[in-house]
Amino acid sequence: MPGLISTAGIAMKILFAFENTLPNAEADAEVFVTTARYLGAHLDESWLHVPVARQNRHIASGLANMPIIRAFAPLKPAALRHFMCGLTIGLRREFHKADLVYTRNLWVAWMSILCGQRVVFDHYRPWPDQIPPLQRWLYKLFTHPRFLGSICHSDYTRRKYIELGVPAEKLRCIHNGFEPRRFQAPMALEAAKKLIGVAPDAKTVIYTGRVNHKKGLELVIEAAKQLPQLTFMFVGSYGEGPVETLARKVPNIMIVPWQTEATLGQYIYAADVLLIPPSLQPLAKFGSTVLPLKLFFYLGSGRPILAGNTPDVAEVLKHDETALLVQPDSLEALVNGLTALTEDGALAARLSAGAAADSQNYTWNARAGKIFATVQGWLEDAATAKPGHWGAAQEGVWKRESRRWFAHFARTRSVILPPGP
Q1: How far apart are CA 379 and CA 119, in angstroms?
Q2: Comparing C-alpha atoms, which of 141, 44, 128 is closest to residue 397?
Q3: Which segments does the entry list as coiled coil (predicted)?
């Protein structure tokens, strides 16, 4: 049975369940483990259930700042690891000692509920849109009495679950964050440029993150051709891919390998413009990115930001206040925006100051406080939670979008269905 709940100054106990191995440089690990670490400071007791090699158990515990409960799961292959993490979680003593399981994995959430535990889900993907055949099952999962609620990383995703018929009270948009300590020793622009081998008087446009065809970087390559006076840097290459091949043909683009946390800041501080490629492709074509994590890191850096005016990004970045938002997938808009930010010092300074001020709303510590208050409310209101609604509208969408998904899968072998007809 779940632990006893006190509604006055809740002494909450949470078992955090992560399905991938640690240590791990991927964004999902950073978001989940950092959230667990900061949220753990609000709790009476917490544990992290995770598949981890014995020699890495101490490292994982340090990352999460809580005891590690090793999952009864192999480290490879990934599909079996995920399956076993959910299948065996109910065997752990801490599972029954906790007030709830906090997870980003749908299978773990479902198995936890079947084993009698409460669940809070935390994820960025709009699963009802991306895998429509799951819609009916997702509805049953999210409206189960022991499913307390879902922390959505964007309002874009939250709305997709509301359309599914899940009560709005069970859905809360709480954006991701950044770690302020990574900016405790700010570096002057010219000094940072010198450190990474760029001339101090060069105007730099820097993108950080995965360098691949799903990020809208092809548009940036075309802009670089029209702006030979600017130095473009793509920081985050894993090798020689199609984007790298295209970029190497443009003399003012530099390809930089993936950087560690210790070295990434050098490139951030060396940016005259921090770039989120202004394209709808990551959201609408590939469905792989909703509110990229780098956005929050950029906000805290004190450097000017240029991004696309897309539905997800516009939830956080405010045009002409904290960033310059341009028309997505428009080469002309991108070229004009980069020209403005690199030639108008007053504009760049104003947007930098606005971003730095707003960034205090998006620290990991602030996110954890919002999540704790939300979960506390869900626990207190669990007995009176509103039922969901699955009607003719949801049934029709489920059947229509499932047919579209099967056709898409047969054609592409991709399980993620992009939005749109």
Answers
A1: 10
A2: 128
A3: none
Which pLDDT belongs to residue 183? 78
Closest by CA position to 285, among listed 128, 134, 420: 420
> All domains of the chain, ordered by start, with CATH?
13-177+369-412 (3.40.50.2000), 183-362 (3.40.50.2000)
pLDDT of amino acid 289: 60
pLDDT for residue 282 is more than 70: no
State yes or no: pLDDT of 2 exceeds 60: no
Residue 260 has pLDDT above 70, yes or no: yes
C-alpha to C-alpha distance for 65 and 358, rounded to whole angstroms: 28
- Within 10 angstroms of residue 128's Cβ, the number of other Cβ atoms is 25
pTM: predicted TM-score of the whole model, two decimal places: 0.87
What sign has the CA pseudo-torsion 312, 318, 320, 321? Answer: negative
Residues 145/170, Cβ–Cβ less than 8 Å: no
Please report where in the chains the tokens 């626990």 appear, as a residue: 379
* Beta-carbon count within 10 A of 107 CB: 15
Determine the average pLDDT of the residues in 346-352.
Answer: 97
The whole-number pLDDT of residue 285 equals: 57
Closest CA to 132 of 414, 339, 404: 404
Using the structure block, give the residue that is written with the tokens 């084993």.
115
